[in-house]
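Work Package 3 (structural annotation) set out to generate three-dimensional models for the target panel prioritized at the project kickoff. During this period the team completed the workflow that converts sequence records into discrete structure tokens, so that structures can be stored uniformly alongside our sequence database. As a representative example, we reproduce one entry of 244 residues exactly as it appears in the project archive.
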Amino acid sequence: MSEEKVRLSKLMAERGICSRREADEYISKGLVLVDGIKIDQLGTKVDPNVKITLEAQALKQQKRLATIILNKPIGYVSAQPEPPYQPAVKLITPENQFGDSKQRLRPEHFQGLAVAGRLDIDSQGLLLFTQDGRIAKKIIGEESKIEKEYIVRVEGKLPADKLKLLNHGLSLDGKPLKPAKVEWINEDQLRFILREGKKRQIRRMCEAVGLKVTGLKRVRVGNLRLGKLPEGKWRFLEDDESLD
């Protein structure tokens, strides 16, 4: 019995080839081949086991998609502006570009640029903006295995059993959290490594074990580290860098 057919754009997104929006764009331009046959009809359904390839023009288009790493300061919101606060994207200006990359900021870099993995207004550190649906899915997709590392300053006492609970055993919004890696760095700072990103997750985890968060900084997403990027500055993801 053959498997039920699925929309080509959905299958492309599930395989990490591109986002569904990008898939629809490539299909409409006739840049997608299914088992060697060009598909240019939106909504086309295919067998789930087909071979999907992109034409050279689509691959070239993907290479041009920008990903930007920003060191977000406290007081900026990650996405939609919340009066009186500014969205972090406002910091992505030619003057704020860091390093000696040959790539310079152009107006087209803002087309479809979206946050992949938010930081709340009271948090700082590594914030990613991308035009590339593949990168966004790797970070925020339900099946994401990408680690996010945070340095968290706390107040309060944390017995060994509560530290164990931070690593595994807590639930938020009625759902158990995935196992985390949480350890002391010094007397008032913890390192959190998570594979998920629920709203205000670390602050809520700390509240659950009697700790108060006084500072939170994201320093790594996958293989990408904040490094020496100054606060409020940004840089492009380079060709030789990847999340995993």
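The chain is about 20% helix and 30% strand.
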